[in-house]
């Protein structure tokens, strides 16, 4: 999972890109990068780390220009080397930079084809570099010194034909403009906005609306599945549907977990969707546990579940309390390799407020259960704090399948709900009761009459249906080998002998 932003401005965009990436930091804390364009020259800074750690004053001063793109990254394909931080760059044709959120499911096949047929070399294992080279190769085939908007849209159409999976992309074609496009299923979000200035109209493209509104831009609309928009170097905006058969199938896990609650994705308020998740889960508790559910207090597992837990408590008519204090400097535990490391991180990440637990029957609410590591540790923490009984509720259905569209979820064998019943999971995590959201209720919570075109979603982590196609048992077996704990530990011990891309002065690209 990553966050992308592109800005076509009338004044320097370095600070705006930095601020936008800060607003998207929740989408990726592994690496960050910005590239800007000034008088035909590109200026790049990228490295591992949080936005505030990657960009210092000297870096910001060196990022010249009124056009630029930025990226924050969680590694889901390739390694965590700083050489794979984005944006990526190729010098031919024109000089193209690209940042990508998502995952190409046919990246290995395209990689081989690019090398053998298109004669293109890639320096990393990142599917984003594959996507960049496909885009660059198709631009080169056009053979135009000054490509028209229609030429660029034709290129995006051919990218859709070759690339399968999920992608929200911002790309900058040096001297020609800023491009944003989205996969034909709209799995990964992409939205654009504008603002009028004394010098003319400025435009922004980003993964979430929060990056747009925080910078004082007006949200225009979401980029549709398969659509591309182009802001030329003269500041003109063009758009076109570039996919043959686009369908709205956004990732429902965006609404459950990844997106900020104040974001609007595809016209749907993430906050309101999470409220409805809590309401529907409360209804299921009443159906299955009865009116006499024996719950004294509802306590969320911070932060993402807070909204759902609040509405759940209101619907049940019981107290809502904050029972855990969160250390915000510990990363997401389901991505960490190694069970012992995950368990240690949970204890460091959360600390109970004992008075909220002592002698009470508590219902703990989390956004989802992935490995079960977090809820197992938290349930024990609640018991240690004096809870009489500990119930557990998941605002999402059972996560049974790996994600192939850009979320670094564990291998299938490491998912606690894979091939287990609710009762078996309850015993493993040590809860007195356990309940999951129903998938149809989750869909109903996200749907809204305001967006009638959006009725279905990518729910592959819950139902195993991969909407972009091309996923079979062999693909999932290969994915399992790459994502299991032993593979991640080996990757962590890998010594990257390549020169760090963050300190290379590429041809036509000035670093710092």
| Poorly predicted runs | 333-339, 494-512
Whole-angstrom Rg: 23 Å
**Mean of all residue-level pLDDT scores:** 90
How much strand? 15-25%
Helix content: 25-40%
Structure annotation, total helices: 17
Task: List the defining traits of the structure above.
512 residues; alpha+beta; eight-stranded mixed beta sheet; disordered C terminus
Structural commentary:
By secondary structure, the chain is an alpha+beta fold. Helices cover 32% and strands 24% of the residues. The protein has 17 helices and 23 strands. The strands form 5 sheets. An 8-stranded mixed β-sheet has the order 11-9-10-1-4-2-3-23. The chain has a 6-stranded antiparallel β-sheet with strand order 5-6-7-8-12-13. Strand 14 and strand 15 (268-269) form a beta hairpin. The protein is globular. The model is unreliable at 333-339 and 494-512 (pLDDT under 50).
Summarize the structure in short.
The model is unreliable at 333-339 and 494-512 (pLDDT under 50). By secondary structure, the protein is of the alpha+beta class. It has helices at residues 14-23, 51-54, 57-62, 107-116, 127-142, 149-162, 209-213, 253-258, 270-289, 306-316, 339-349, 373-384, 422-429, 439-446, 460-463, 473-483, 485-492; strands at 2-8, 31-38, 41-48, 67-73, 88-90, 96-104, 165-173, 177-182, 191-197, 200-206, 218-222, 227-232, 237-241, 264-265, 268-269, 297-300, 319-320, 324-326, 350-352, 361-366, 389-394, 433-436, 509-511.
Give me the secondary-structure topology.
Layout: E1 2-8, H1 14-23, E2 31-38, E3 41-48, H2 51-54, H3 57-62, E4 67-73, E5 88-90, E6 96-104, H4 107-116, H5 127-142, H6 149-162, E7 165-173, E8 177-182, E9 191-197, E10 200-206, H7 209-213, E11 218-222, E12 227-232, E13 237-241, H8 253-258, E14 264-265, E15 268-269, H9 270-289, E16 297-300, H10 306-316, E17 319-320, E18 324-326, H11 339-349, E19 350-352, E20 361-366, H12 373-384, E21 389-394, H13 422-429, E22 433-436, H14 439-446, H15 460-463, H16 473-483, H17 485-492, E23 509-511
Parallel strand pairs: 3-23, 16-17, 16-20, 20-21, 21-22
Antiparallel strand pairs: 1-4, 1-10, 2-3, 2-4, 5-6, 6-7, 7-8, 8-12, 9-10, 9-11, 12-13, 14-15, 18-19
